[in-house]
Write a structure and sequence with these properties.
By secondary structure, the chain is of the alpha/beta class. It contains 25 helices and 25 strands. The chain has 2 domains: about 325 residues, no CATH class; about 325 residues, Alpha-Beta Horseshoe (pyruvate-formate lyase- activating enzyme). The strands form 8 sheets. A 10-stranded mixed β-sheet has the order 3-2-4-5-8-9-14-13-12-10, with helices on both faces.
Amino acid sequence: MKPEVTSNAPNIFGYKKYWARRFGPAPELPMSMPEMQQLGWDACDIILVTGDAYVDHPSFGMAVIGRVLEAQGFRVGIISQPDWHGADDFKKLGRPNLFFGVTGGNMDSMVNRYTSDKKIRSNDAYTPRGEAGKRPDRAVAVYAHRCREAYKNTPIIIGGIEASLRRIAHYDYWSDVVRKSLLLDAKADLLVYGNAERQIVEIAHRLAKGEPIGNLHGIRGTAHFVKQIPRDWVEKDSTSIDKPGAVKPPSDPYQMQPDCASEAPAAAGEQVIQFKPIPNRQRQRTVIRLPSYEAVKNDPVLYAHASRVMHAETNPGNARALIQRHGEREVWINPPPIPLTTAEMDAVFELPYSRLPHSAYADANIPAFEMIQHSVLIMRGCFGGCSFCSITEHEGRIIQNRSEDSIIREIERIRDVSPTFTGNISDLGGPTANMWRLACKDPQIEAACRKPSCVYPGICNNLNTDQTPLIKLYRRARALPGIKKIFIASGLRYDLAVETPAYVKELVTHHVGGYLKIAPEHTESGPLSKMMKPGMGSYDRFKQMFDKYSKEAGKEQYLIPYFIAAHPGTTDQDMLNLAVWLKRHGFRADQVQAFLPSPMSIATAMYHSGKDTLHKVDRKTPDMAIPKSIKQRRLHKAFLRYHDPKNWPLLREALRDMGRGDLIGYGKQHLIPPRQPKGFRDETALPTEKTARFKTKHTGFKLKTAKVKR
């Protein structure tokens, strides 16, 4: 059994509670003055502003932060989806005694509002009735400005995934420029990144004791301004491309230890281990200077270099602080927070959530809530390190687990309390379905490791891959009275699953509802090597097991593979090969995903710079294939939907240009037919690059968006 993990960080529930604890927990955090008065409050200590509807459920970030702060004794109010065109909505709960906490919501506001083709989405899953347009572009900055307008001298702390991915100078896909750290754009006092419980609790208690917000420096998982580097710190200059400066003792920010160390024996029983940063004072007092905002804004290759340095400093066991100049200001990024212990995770998820949308929404449907209301999150984090994914930048690669007992208690609470529960749990998972209780076999190796992934290019010898505890959890959960079915809907790492065939059998026999979604992402080695995803050999092994155990269970079940179009490193030939594979295996994708360059990800640095940032950056190396043009991105998506007649004219043209006219015809060996069926028009007309270019401009408190001409 995987040992429990503890840390040397203070327990987040070990602080002396604030005096307002006497009011007790609220049935739901208030969103109006009348609700505050009913609770007997004359003011809020903390007001959280969010771009989502307020759902008091542990899958919604603001609910978690609000309830964690409430458990510390603070009075917490929520301002949900305020009208950002003025400051009135930001005054409706009065001035907070301590601070405003601002987030764009569970999703980045730009990802929420725009597709990968930069088209405005027609709905918003985090809004009542799925209504679109209830949040602004770059919501965190806009909300922070309005908070400042409402109450000028009140501290403003920004957080959530939007802040996490914009804590340093970052490439912004929607405006096609490198933007400043969000700390500057939002004019906030402090930026909190990652899952913020540990940081926000310390911040709240220190502010409550009277410390000025400007003194809250050095808190892990935060970014703030500094005037100068402290005297007892050593600066390491990494402003030149792949030539980090020297400090004594020398330390390379790109050092990637091959397999960390020799294999250590797996721990047994409930042994407690300590997650501690490497006890090297010189290292802990070293700050790495990144190239300045002005430098990376004007030099994509230097931006790629900065991305490499930043991603090497993501393990909380050995990460060093970063500093980046923005004009006359210095942004200091502290190392990531120490992961929560299992006991802390249990306490966070067992706070008194109502598990319902706020009563102000009455019977309005909130699509995201409908999807997750009967799901249970069992862990956080992901050590997969996929280059296009933002989980590592936000939640980190150290898995934070809940205990089996806590998970069972939540299932029982859903069964006993939810008015719409019919006996089915929609998911037991998290960022991935099957990383619960998986970690390095030696905590010292884990704290020292600087590899970006534990499973690429192969599974690390030091990684515990035994999923037997997960089998035990599934069996115990489905044996509960009143539970009919437990589905596993989170993304499955099939390369890990095949390491424990008994797990695959358990999953396939009891927890698949006819279809299981998995994400090979591609079939070709070129794109897969840039994604840091396993080859198709792992997929084939898993499919064999899936088919075998489905047959043994007497069930007709199918795998639904997901693929990405237009990822950096993908050529037209790669997409053609993928389309042929799909045709050969009889797959017809209804929905396809085109690569969306989210801020700060490794793949986004590739997209912007043209360089493979998984390897040493060099101006002399040729640029990699980057599908950027509208026509090429559309072509790559068309290859994934080769069966759609709307795409056939574009594909015919491409196949002829590629010298593959032999794939046009009516036979089984052909990809597409030579003619359109009746009723289908040629829809290959494309907007020009000039008219289709998308621009957004944020000035003051007004956000102007140029319309895309079609």
